[in-house]
Amino acid sequence: MKVRIAHAFAGILILTGLLLGVYVNQNWLWLAAIPGINLLQNSMTNWCLLYVILDKLGIKDKEENCSK
Question: The pTM is what?
Fold first, then answer.
């Protein structure tokens, strides 16, 4: 469950940052860069701050992955 929430959250931030960057101000593109950097960091270290936050909120992980 945490993986799906994290992917949805990253996708929402990236798409929102891109849309705001195109239609409002280019500085909004930094909003798209932050989850992108976090995804890259997560792929190398297998640590994600959002997972820590979701743990503290009591959301359990069902060991889901993309292959199911």
Answer: 0.78
* Token pair for 22: 């195109």
Nearest alpha carbon to residue 12 among 20, 2, 24, 22: 20
- Please report, in angstroms and rounded to a whole number, the separation of the first and last CA atoms in the chain: 13
Q: What is the pLDDT of residues 9-44, one digit of tens each?
A: 999 999 999 999 999 999 999 999 999 999 999 999
In this prediction, what percent of the chain has a pLDDT beyond 70? 91
Q: Where are the domains of the chain?
A: 2-56
- The C-alpha atoms of residue 43 and residue 14 are separated, in whole angstroms, by 17
Task: Tell me if 13 sits within 8 A of 32, measured CB to CB.
Answer: yes
Of 32, 42, 25, nearest to 10 by C-alpha is 32
